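Data deposition worksheet. Section B asks for the primary sequence of the deposited chain exactly as it was used as input, without tags or linkers unless they were present during the calculation. Section C holds the resulting structure in C-alpha cell form. Section D is free text for depositor observations; keep each observation to a single sentence. Incomplete worksheets are returned to the depositor.
Section A, Depositor: J.P.
Section B:
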Amino acid sequence: MSVRHLELADFRIFRRASFDPEPEGTTVLAGPNGTGKTSVLEALAYLGTRRSFRGAPPEAMVRSGTASAVVRAEIDGPDSPVLVEAEIQPGGRSRSRVNRKAVSGRKELAAAAPCTVFCPDDLAIVGGGPKGRRDLLDDALGLLDREGARAADDTERVLRQRAALLRQAAGRASEEVTTSLDVWDQRLADCGKVLVEARRRLVGDLGELAGPMYARLAGSGAEGDLVRLEYVGSWEGDLREALGSSRRDDLRRAVNTVGPHRDDLLLRIEGREARLHASQGEQRCLALALRLAVHQLVRSRTRLVPTLLLDDVFSELDPARSRALVAQLPPGQAILTTASPLPAGIAVARTVDVATLGAA
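Section C:
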C-alpha cells in the first residue's frame, strides 16, 4: 500500500497543502525547522490511528482561528484505491471516513491507512511512562489482530464510562451506583481479558524479532537474549474480582485504579531494565527495533504494507547507525523529514521542499 496524494486544510500551520510522495522508495521532505515537515507526517499518521504521534490534543492540530482541520489521502490499497478522510475538531468531536463511510474502529482505520512512525519522541517508548508502550502494542493490534483491536476500543470506551460514573458518585456507594458499577465491571472484565491476551501474544511475537533487529541497528554481534520483552499486568488473578476488591478505593479516588490501562511492557537489554539503565543511544536503537519488528510482523502476516514515516530520525543517530537503519528498512514507500543534509551513503527516490506544498 502507498499514499498517492495527501491534502490538508487548516491543519497546523497549513491553510491549504497537497503532497504526492513517491509510491516506492524514500521521499525526503526537506526544509528548516518550524516549516511544517513533521505536521505532514502527523497528518498521515492521524488517518490510521486517530491520534497525534506527538501526543497533541485535537485543538493543537487545528490552525489558529479556524473551527476544524481536514486531512484527506488517496491510498493505493491491495485491491483498489482507498479514500481516507478525517475532520478534526476541538473537544473530541472529530470524525473519520473511509470511502465516504463513517468509521471509528481502530482496525478499520489502521487497515485503510497503515503506517509505521519513527520520530525523536520515540525515545519515550523505552525511557518514558507505560502509556507509550501500551500505545505501541495497541496500535500494532490495529494492524494485526481484529479481535484484539476491537477489545482495545471496547476497553477504552468502558473505562471512560466507568470513570464518569465514579466521578458522579462523589465517593458514595449508593444502590444505583453499585448496580451500575457491577455492569461496567463485568464489561471491563470481558473486554479486558481479550485485550490482555492479545497484547501478551503480540509481546511474544515481537520478542522474537526485536533482539536481532536491535543487534543490527546497534552494531552488536550478539543476538540471542540480548533484548527481552515481558508483559506486566497491574493485577493478579481474575480481573472481575480485582475490580471488586478495588471498588472502595476507586470510589474514594474517583478513578479506575485497576485494568489494562495500568499494565506495562518491561524491556530489558542484556538483563538490564532499559528504562532505567540503558544509555540514550541504546534506548533509541531499541525503540527503532520495536517499530521495525511491528512493521515486519504486519508485512509477513497481512496483505498490508505500511508506509514508513521517519521524522528527523537521523539528527538523533550517528552516521553509522543512520546507515544501519536505512539498511533495515523494508521495500515499499517511506517518507522522511530532515532539516539538514542526509548522512553520506543514503540514497532516496526524491527530495521535496516543504515550502512547495501549499499556503501556510
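Section D:
The chain has a mean pLDDT of 90.
The first helix runs from residue 37 to 49.
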